[in-house]
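Hi U.,

Before I forget, here's the chain from the pilot set. I'm dumping it here mostly so it's searchable later in email.
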Amino acid sequence: MKLLFKYFLDSVIKFPNFFIGSLFMCIMCALCTASLPILLQNTLNDVTSLSDGFYIQILLIIIVLVLSIVLEICKYISLDKMGGNYISSLLSRLEKALLDLDELSINKYGKNKIDHILYSDVLDVFRVIGNFLPSITTSILISILLFVISAIIDVKVAVFLISADLIGLSISYISKNKIRNTSSNTNKIIKELHLLLEDFTSTMSFIKVNGLGRYYSERTTNCINDFISSSISEDKTIYFYGGLMSKIISLLQILFSIILAAMISDNTVYLDIRSSYE
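Structure:
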């Protein structure tokens, strides 16, 4: 992981425009999300009158929702371009380094290992640079930025945001471990089934002569049943934690909207009182 993080930093240094662009779009997405509760509150205030302001608020909500989707797409396009440019640069350097090696050194590494580095390892670097680490980095930077801004505006909002982040991180950590364990078990059973089928195809003559067809059929059925059970367990885990995260996010958004609405309401009352004295 340290090596991949090193590659990520190298990609940011080499192609800062793509990373800064995706970071900017992440911030804009966060601002769109933060503006929705305020727009909803204003819309609810105007719903009884059905004035021009009500329809303008509805239009603004639609624009913000569409804009957030477009920005999200643009963010990942920017990250894909950064990852693509970086692995292109990385592969060029690797190819040049290999061409500079003598035949003895190449034989020492082995063709299979070199193939694996050029294909699988480079693709792993692309996946990490094009999605995983940039998403984490931008999320952390945005969280810090929002926390600082909210702490300046209102401490209650800052406490709410840090609590929401801690809840999200806790669920993410637990779910990641659970999903990894169930996925590993499913992959293990799939490999066992693959080996069993390979064994069957390579020893068909022996199976016919010794009447082992029923034995292999039962083993195959049992292996498939184990695979289905493991897949069901994996799906349950994935959709349980995915649903839990989705519902908690919805709940936190509602609570955040209530907090903002209360703050707006308090400010309105304060301004009304002040204006009456003036």
